[in-house]
Input
Amino acid sequence: MHISIPESSHSPELEVEYATLPVFVVHLESSQDTDATNDLGLMTFADYTFSLPTDIDVVAGSYQVSYSGGYMFMWWETSGSINVSDSKAATTTVMVSGGGTLRAVGNTKRLEYTYDHGQPKWESDTVGRIDAVRFTPLFSDQLLMARFYIYDLYSFGSNAFKLHVMDENRSDLITPFEQTPTSEGWFDVGLSSYGIGVNEGVDFYVGMEWINDYNPDLGEDSTSPSDRSSYWNGTHWRAESYNDFMIRAVVGTLIDHVVLVEGSTFHVTAESNSTTSNFQFIKEGKKLLFNVAGSTGTYGFCNITIPNQLLGGPFTVTFDEQPLSEVLSLDNGTHTWLYFTYPQSGHAIEITGTTVIPEFPSLLPLLLMAMTLITFIVRKKLKMIKE
Amino acid sequence: MIMKIMVRTWILLLVIGFLASSLSFSSFKINAAPAIGSTTVTLYPIADAYVNSSSPDTNYGNENSLYTSHNSELNYAYTMFNLSSIPSDANVISAEFKVYLSDIEGYTGSIGTHCSSNDSWTELGITWNNKPSFAETATDTVYYGMWVSYGYDSWNVTVDVRDALSKEKLTEVLVDHRSSSYAHFDSREFPQPRIRG
Output
């Protein structure tokens, strides 16, 4: 709250910050569930976003707190006179009645590398310019997603840009491709289908190339720059020392299930914070079955991509034989992407499709070969008769 | 040869001194997040005036500027705030006294703010001869180096506000600690933002 009673311009002022209740020091931090690493990600406490770890002054009371970036959130831990209303929710209410520590605990099955502080200003440039951020993986895994903070979109002209994923020498790892954000805020681009592996301690870069002058605006953050941002000015890469470009990378484990059916090979990929097991494809029942397991009391998620040729939608998903009502589904014509969450610990997931790979595909090539052969023989015989 | 080295050493020392002087002023502070859940209030003076040792019986309460000087004459700038809008049991986390610098001359050095426990003075009554006394030690100082930007400068007066909260009034006195110097600050009477070319 800020109270200001304007008088004359340039008048002397006395700006006083006070509290009528006691003020306590709250330590904010995060840690990996195995304690192998700590203090990744950002914590937002009553609309103020902090990089971790940090100590903040808080007046006794209740505030909204959320954890983002960094680890895949699992639960909150508190000590001292700090309590949270829901220890399993990444966004919850924290009650402060004294000093203490608030810790977000997460795993690295899905790790969002965040070097900005979530305080965007605008940044835009001309065609050919590339803004990039250097990422240093803490673990070897797969690049699942690139995130771009779109500060502003323009109603005139295109907002498309070209996405670059580059190695430690800023050479493209994949052919840069166009993406068009449709709303402001974080714009996520899935990269799991490219199979880009990242190695512990080996830098990689994610970049945004302008293909339209000044459209769109990328967010940049001047809070404690990390020296990880750079830009291509058309001839050279230059370090950006005063800002962090708001580009993030999500790295995690993608489980690739190979399904061999009717002589064809299909890949069903899954991303989950649970341990998945006993994966089965039951053609007759048009079903995919697998088990998920995780810490009791936490929420699990599963992001699964199914080739439509193997199993087509619409889909129903059951959890211990009970239908899950909230399943996000996206069909790009060749694959269907399903996303759902569930309470853990161990449970059975069943995904039932509507169409399934037919039996004849493996006979089709034989049939074609036989028909070609018959045609050839018949034509030869006819030729002989004519002669 | 020795003479040459001595001359070079002196030049080097002068350059270092020059850089140190400019660096000390150009240092910046990062604004920390306020205490979460706290209240911030901006108060404006209920009285301000300067006093002049050369005209000990003249009142300068209606002037558009507050003068401080330390040369052939001394000028002190008095400012009084009413703290009654802040609850008497409040925990004061921080307090910044901000004054708009509009002109400055003199050697590099500091201008300090000193707290006065006497709040009986009035804007149109205060003169050099009846001015209230103030603390010998400055609560806070601002250093003015070789390059100075006009605009608001601020002094940390948290301790003074905590002490003055019970009597609901705070008097701060700006004193120029430099030599052969003066500075002009905008007073509460200054009506409009000035436009500089």
